[in-house]
C-alpha cells in the first residue's frame, strides 16, 4: 500500500482524497484502508462485485471479511462477519474480493 497522504487510486490512477475511503452502499458502511481506491471507483466496484449475505439478504461489498458456508453441489454461500449473521459452527472465514472469496482459511472446531 502506498502510505502517502494522497495515494493514487489503484483503479483509475486519480488521487484518493482521503484514506480510508468512506462510502455507504445499500445500507453498508464501508471504510476502505487498503487498497487505496477513490470513492467513485469504490462505488463502481461495489455495484459490480458485491454479493448477497446468505443469512440476512444484505449486501456484502468487495474488500470485506466474510464467513463462508458450504452449500450443496460444492457451492459456497457468504455471510457478514457480524454477530447477527455469523452462525455458530461456521468453520471457514475469508475475504471477499472482486467477485470471489480470497485468502480464506478453515478454523478447526474443538471437539
Topology of this structure?
Elements lengths: L20 E5 L2 E5 L6 H11 L1 E2 L6 E2 L3 E7 L5 E5 L11 E5 L4 E6 L5
Antiparallel strand pairs: 1-2, 3-4, 5-6, 5-7, 7-8
What is the straight-line distance between the termini? 40 Å
Low confidence ranges: none
If helices are DSSP runs of H or I spanning 4 or more residues, what is the number of helices?
Answer: 1
Any idea how many domains? 2
Mean pLDDT: 82
Estimate the helix proportion, in percent. under 10%
Tell me the fraction of residues in β-strands, as a range.
25-35%
What are the secondary-structure elements, in order, as H or E?
EEHEEEEEE
How does the helix and strand content classify structurally? mainly beta
Shape: elongated
- Major sheet size, sense and barrel closure: 4 strands, antiparallel
Number of strands: 8
Radius of gyration: 15 Å
Strand order of the largest sheet: 6-5-7-8
Description:
The structure is a single chain. With 111 residues, the protein is mainly beta. The chain has 2 domains: 1-49, no CATH class; 50-111, no CATH class. It is 10% helix and 33% strand. The protein contains 1 helix and 8 strands. A 4-stranded antiparallel beta sheet has the order 6-5-7-8, with no helix packed on it. Strand 1 and strand 2 form a beta hairpin. It starts with 20 loop residues before the first strand and ends in a 5-residue tail after the last strand. The mean pLDDT is 82.
Amino acid at each position: 500500500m502506498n502510505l502517502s497522504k494522497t495515494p493514487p487510486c489503484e483503479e483509475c490512477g486519480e488521487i484518493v482524497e482521503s484514506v480510508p475511503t468512506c462510502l455507504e452502499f445499500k445500507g453498508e458502511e464501508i471504510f476502505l484502508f487498503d487498497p487505496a481506491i477513490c470513492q467513485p471507483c469504490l462505488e463502481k466496484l461495489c455495484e459490480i462485485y458485491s454479493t448477497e449475505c446468505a443469512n440476512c439478504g444484505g449486501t456484502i461489498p468487495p474488500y470485506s471479511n466474510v464467513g463462508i458456508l458450504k452449500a450443496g453441489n460444492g457451492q459456497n454461500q457468504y455471510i457478514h462477519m457480524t454477530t447477527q449473521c455469523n452462525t455458530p459452527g461456521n468453520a471457514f472465514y475469508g475475504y471477499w474480493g472482486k467477485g470471489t472469496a480470497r485468502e480464506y482459511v478453515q478454523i478447526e472446531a474443538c471437539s
